[in-house]
Amino acid sequence: MKKWFRNKYNQQVQSSKKMSHTNYDQQDQSLFALINQFKQSGDFVHFYNPQSPQPFWISYFSSLIDVEILHRDILPYLNTIKLSSLEELRGALPIENIVITSDLEIIQKELFKGFVLIQFNEEDSACALVRGEIKKVRELTIAEEEYSVVGPKEGFVESLATNLNLVRKRLPVSQLLVKKMEMGKLSKTEVAVLYLEGIANEENVNTVLQRLQKLEFDQIIDSSVIAELIADNGNSVFPQLMDTERPDRVAGVLGEGKVVILVDGSPHALIGPINVVNFFSAFEDYYMNWQMASAFRVIRLFAVIFSVLVTPIYVAIVTYHYQLIPKDLMVTLVTSRRMVPLPPILEALVMELTIELLREAGARLPTKVGTTIGIVGGIVIGTAAVEAGVTSNILLIITALAALAAFTTPIYRMSSTIRLIRFPFLLFAQLWGLLGIAVAFIFLTTHLLRLTSLGRPYLEPIYPPRLGDLKDAFIRLPFSWQSKRPMFLQAESQKRFVKKQAKEKRDIDE
Amino acid sequence: MKTPIKEQFLVAPFLVFFLVHSTQLGVGVLSFQRDIAEFAGQDSWITVIVSGIIVHVLIWMIYTILNKEKSSLIVIHQNVFGKWLGGLINILFILHFLVISIVVLRTFIEVVQVWMFPSLRTLPLALVYLCSVYYVVSSGFRTVTGVCFIGVIFSLFLIVTFLAPWEFSTLRNLLPVYDHSFKEMANSIKEMTFPFIGFEFLLMYYPFIQKPKTSQKWAHYGNLATMAIYLILMLTALVYFEQEHLLRTSWPTLTMWKIINFSFLERFELIGIAFGAVVVFPKMCLVLWAASRATKELFKVRQIKILVFLLSICLIGSCILKDRDSIDLLQKFVSMVGFYLSIVYIPILFLIYHLRFRMGGKR
User: From the list B135, B149, B271, which residue is nearest A463 (CB)?
Assistant: First the structure.
C-alpha cells in the first residue's frame, strides 16, 4: 500500500517536472514565438502601426489592461514622437518604471500582470514593457462578518494593494515588513506576509515563511486555502489560524507580535499564531471600557459552553438520569414531552438539523429572501413542529438558544466549529448519559491540548498556564495593565510602554 | 546510558503540583473514609494527617536521591543494585504500575455500574476510556501533564459541594479524641497509603521537569493539597455519618453528595460520577505513561508499541474482574503492594543509595 502511494507520488513529481520542462522549452524560443503562442488566446491583442513617425508593434492582453491608460498615456505619445531607440521611451511616456528587456521569462510574467509590450520590429528580441494594468476593485465596505457597533467599520476587499494600504496607514513605521511571494502553479497568487520586525518572534515569522515556501498547490483562490494547507493539524475541526476582515484587528495583532498573511483576491487576512481564547474576543472589546468588555467576554464564554453542552445534557437527562430533575420541574418536562413519540435523541437531532438547515438556507440565499426564510423557519416550522407533536416545547427553546449562543462567537469559522462539535457530544450523551458527555469532554480537551498553531500551544493561557496572559483572555483588564505583550507570542521586545508611568498616581489636590 | 530529554518536552516546575496532586486523587476519594474508619473510628482524621506527613518525608527522600542522580527510577535501580537485581525490581515496579491502572479503571467502572448504569458492560466503557488514554499518552508527557492540570482545575469546584453535608453535621461524633491504640492507628495508616499512592511517580517523570530542583516545594504543596482534600472529606464524613452508618457505607463521598439539591437539580452524585471520569482520567494517563516509559527505558523498545500492549493488558484485566469480591481482593492486594513498594521500600532505597553514594564518593 505504502509502495503504491510512493509510486504514485513519484509519478506526480515526474509529471510535474515534465510540465515545467516543456514550459521552459517554450520560453527558450524567441519572443516572436511566444507572441504567436499568446495569439491563440482571443483576448491577446497584437497589432502594427506603420503610420506613426516610428512604426511599432504593440501587444497586450486586453482583459488585463486598462484601455484608458493605453489611449491616454501610451498611444498618443507613440504616434507623435519620433523615437530612435526603445530607451527613449522612458523619456517619452508619462509612466514610471518602463522595463526594457529581452528576457522571455520576465516578459511573460509582466504581460500576465497587465503590462503593454512595445517593439519596433516584430522579430526583435528586445522590447519595452509599460505598465497599464486595470485596477477594478470592490469599494471599501463595512466589515459584515465581524461587524462592530463602535470602532472602525471598514473591511478588507479583494485587492492586496488596497488591503496593504489599509494596514500600512495604521502602522506607518519602518519596522512593518511585507514579504511577498507568488504561489499556485495556475493561479500565480500574490501572497504577502506582514510582521513588525523587532517585535514579532523570528521563529514564528520563519515558520510561516517556510511553510508557505514549501507549499505546492495549483490554485490559491482564497486565504482559507492557505489556512488549511499550512495548518499544524489539517484534520482538526478547529481553525488554527484566525481569519479576519478587519484592518484594525490586523494592525492590533501586528503590534502584539503576531504574523499576518494577506492573499491577493481574498478579503480575509490570516493571523497566527493564535490560541483558542483569541477566537472569543471581539475586537470591539478594545473599544469599550474594560468592565463591559470583560463582562461580555465572560458571557460569550458561557454562551459557548452552553451551546455545546445544553442539548447533549437534555438528551442525557431525559434518556437516563430523570432522577436528577426535581419533581416540580419534572412535571413541566413531562407535560411538554407527553405528546412526543420520538426518543429524546431523535427529537434533538431533528431539531438541531432543522436549525442547521435554516442557517444553511439563509446563508446561501440573497439577504432579503434569507430573512424571510429565517422568519418562516423560526416561527412557522417551530410552532408547527410542537403542535404536530414531533418535538417538545422545552427542546425547541433549548436548541434555539444553543444556536443563538453559538453565533456570539465573533469569528465565523469558530462558531461553525462550535456548532459541529455538538453532534459527537449528542451521540455520546445518547450512549452513556452524563458519563458519555464527560468522555466526549475528555476527548475534546485532549484534542485541544495536542493542537498547536504555528508550533505554539493552542490552549495557551489555560495550558501551559501563564497567569500573565490571563489579563487579556477571559476578561480584558485596563490598558494600563497591559504593559507587556502576550507571553504566548514570545515577542522579541516584551514591553509596550513603561508600566510605572501608566500606574503613577497623583496625590490629592496636585 | 543517560539521555537528556529535549527542551521542548519538558514541563515547568510548578506543574509538579498538579502532577503529584492529580495522581494521588483517584477513585479512592469516593470510598477511603470507610476503610480508615474501620480501624481508627472517630480518630481517622489524625490518620490522614499522619499519613500526609509520612508522604512528605518520603517525597523529601525521593528528591534527595533524584537531585543527585538526575534520572529516572530505572537508571537509579540499575546503578544501585546492578543490572540483574535492579532489572528485577524495575519489572516489579512496572507490574505494580500496570496493576494500579487496572484497579483504578475497574473501580471507577464499578462505581458507574453500581450508581449509574447497573446493566452497563465493562468492555465498551473500558475500551473507549483506554482509547482516550492512548490519545493522551501517545502525544507525550506534556499532554499528560496538561490533562493532569485540567483535571485538577475542573474538579476544584467539587470541594465546595462538600460544604453541604455540614448543615447536618454532629460535631460530637469526633469525640473522644485519640481513643485508639497505637496498633489500630498503625493499621489505619497502612490502609491510608492507597489513597496517597501516586507521589512515587516523581521517580519516573523527574527528568521531564525544567530546573527539577526547584520543583520540590511544588511536590510538597501538591501533597499538602491532597492531604487537605482528604482531611476535608474525612471530617465531613465523620461528622455527617454515625459511625455504624459509615462502616456500612461503601462510597461515603457519593452518599454525602446525595443531599445536595437545587430547585432544578437533585441527586448530585450522578454529576459527581461524571466529573469523576474527568478526575480519574489523569491518574490513568500518568500511570500508563510511567509504565510504558519505564518499559521503554528498561528494554529499549518503542514506547508507542509497548503502550498499546499495556493498554490491552489493562483492558483484558479490567474485563476479567467480574464482581465486587475480585475487585476488592485486587484492591487490597495493590494497597498492600503499594504500601511495601512506596512506604517501606523508598526509605530502604534512600538508605542504600546514600550509603553507596557516600562510599563511592570516598573511593
Answer: B149
